Amino acid sequence: MLGGEEIGEDLGYGVPRLLSPERVKAVAQSLGGIDAASLGARMDPQAMEAAEVYPSIWDEADVFDSYLAPLYESLREFYAAAADADEAVIQAIT
């Protein structure tokens, strides 16, 4: 998912990246092969908490169903729509 061409300046968490339409299609295909239920079965909240994965919520009850799964599904939908439209994607964390 990460990759592409660096564009612009560091916004505080790294340089924004441009993913070509071809790369977007590859990301969409990869994400399409892992649904939220499969992701949930592989998620280890204790390991995520121990690794200090942001945000520090992994020890909260039902965090997967209420937080991660909906965001993951939105990400899958976003990349699928961009791939279908043959669009590039700019990735930036601000």
TrEMBL record:
Family matches, as Pfam families: DUF1877
Entry-linked Gene3D superfamilies: YfbM-like super family
Protein name: DUF1877 family protein
Species this chain originates from: Knoellia flava TL1
